[in-house]
Structure to design on (453 residues):
């Protein structure tokens, strides 16, 4: 397998960042396309109620991805520091522990969802009308979440091993497979919502198998390590896992923030605008992962550079990378907003039949929703920077404040004040508030540092 020549410690920062970013970006966008393809084929091939049902289940996708990011970010940061200090064995032990513990947690979670499937559906905001569709989709998709989680963790390991292009392929191949299978199962085979779920499930299997194949046969430095089963080894695994969880917790909270946005939004929209409102809101939720994946690609591309040079004590390279990532996030968020604002009717028409009530609600509200894309991208990258320099508590604090506290508060406060427009402005307002707080915290931190000097 051809390797990418990457030197985190001496290569020119913009060149190094681009070398990692573009393959990561393409892979991330293709991952988002898995979800978007489902939405398009379900909305146009099955109906608006089916689209609403998928959006009800969507928070489970976010939680699964969050578990992958939790262990992926944590293991990547720890392994980066170990590699910068020449401790390859310790890095391999860390990534193996991350994979094994996450697999066990995911298996337990999937079992609970199956046992309490109806209760889970209602907890996610399903109405009685949507319940049969929600259960149909959930029962087919949940068993394969473990492969999605494996792929999410594997992306970090493969990039750190020096193969960002292969990491990209682990996303591109499943995305293309999902689009093809979605079309075949939903239209020619008329399998309905079950077909859309099965297409996504098989795509997730493909991504997980590719990651596993790389780690078992093609990795250069990072590979799976046989762990001992002694009491001392188990205690060491618990200690290392706890540290990785602390480092990666804010990354998981990033996904939980989107899950919270979907969950609270589903409740708010179904209360005010009923099932058509949830279908309209689902279009915004399908578009947001593109922006999230772009911001996440920026954060993940900067992360190994920042973590490696943080480990070697090169503060200049750390801050150069951080500034470059913020500029990239600002431009990306601005472009995403412009595209959504100008092309909103055409984008909504890919999911919903023009003229239906859900279509009218979506085209009227999504431009307001898109106003938050710039701050959304900046916040993801900024919190990723705190993760990369091992400020886990600070990253977790801001992610919790942003994704759960601020988002929930805005959904509770703005709709009674502004009506339907308040539903769409809740997310942008929450992102703006957190961006202001992050900026103030960063300025204060640097003033204190200069005062100490």
């Amino acid at each position: 397998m051809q390797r990418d020549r990457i030197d985190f410690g001496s290569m020119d920062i913009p060149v190094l960042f681009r070398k990692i970013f573009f393959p990561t970006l393409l892979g991330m966008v293709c991952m988002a396309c898995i979800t978007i393809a489902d939405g398009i084929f379900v909305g146009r091939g099955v109906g608006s109620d089916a689209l609403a049902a998928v959006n009800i289940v969507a928070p489970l996708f976010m939680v699964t991805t969050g578990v992958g990011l939790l262990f992926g970010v944590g293991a990547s940061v720890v392994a980066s520091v170990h590699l910068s200090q020449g401790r390859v064995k310790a890095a391999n032990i860390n990534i193996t522990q991350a994979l094994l513990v996450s697999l066990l947690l995911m298996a337990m979670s999937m079992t609970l969802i199956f046992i309490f499937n109806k209760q889970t559906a209602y907890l996610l905001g399903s109405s009685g009308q949507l319940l049969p569709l929600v259960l149909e989709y959930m029962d087919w998709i949940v068993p394969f979440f473990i492969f999605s989680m494996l792929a999410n963790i594997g992306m970090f390991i493969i990039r750190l091993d020096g193969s960002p292009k292969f990491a990209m392929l682990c996303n591109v191949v499943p995305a293309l497979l999902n689009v093809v299978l979605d079309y075949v199962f939903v239209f020619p085979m008329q399998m309905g919502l079950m077909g859309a779920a099965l297409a996504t499930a098989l795509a997730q299997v493909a991504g997980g198998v590719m990651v596993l194949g790389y780690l078992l046969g093609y990795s250069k430095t990072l590979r799976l390590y046989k762990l001992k089963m002694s009491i001392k080894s188990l205690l060491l695994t618990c200690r290392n896992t706890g540290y990785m969880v602390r480092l990666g917790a804010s990354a998981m909270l990033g996904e939980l923030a989107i899950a919270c946005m979907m969950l609270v939004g589903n409740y708010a929209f179904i209360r005010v605008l009923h099932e058509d409102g949830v279908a309209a809101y689902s279009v915004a939720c399908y578009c947001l992962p593109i922006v999230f994946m772009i911001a996440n690609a920026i954060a993940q591309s900067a992360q190994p550079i920042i973590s490696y040079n943080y480990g070697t004590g090169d503060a200049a390279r750390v801050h150069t990378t951080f500034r470059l990532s913020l500029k990239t996030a600002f431009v990306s968020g601005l472009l995403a907003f412009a595209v959504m604002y100008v092309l909103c009717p055409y984008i909504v028409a890919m999911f919903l039949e023009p003229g239906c009530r859900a279509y009218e609600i979506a085209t009227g509200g999504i431009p307001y929703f898109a106003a938050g894309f710039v701050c959304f991208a900046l916040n993801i990258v900024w919190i990723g920077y705190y993760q990369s320099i091992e400020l886990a508590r600070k990253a977790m604090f801001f992610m919790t404040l942003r994704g759960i506290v601020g988002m929930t508060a805005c959904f509770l406060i703005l709709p009674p004040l502004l009506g339907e427009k308040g539903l769409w402005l809740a997310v942008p307002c929450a992102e703006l508030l957190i961006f202001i707080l992050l900026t103030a915290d960063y300025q204060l931190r640097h003033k204190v540092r200069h005062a100490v000097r």
Notes: Residues 13-452 form one domain.
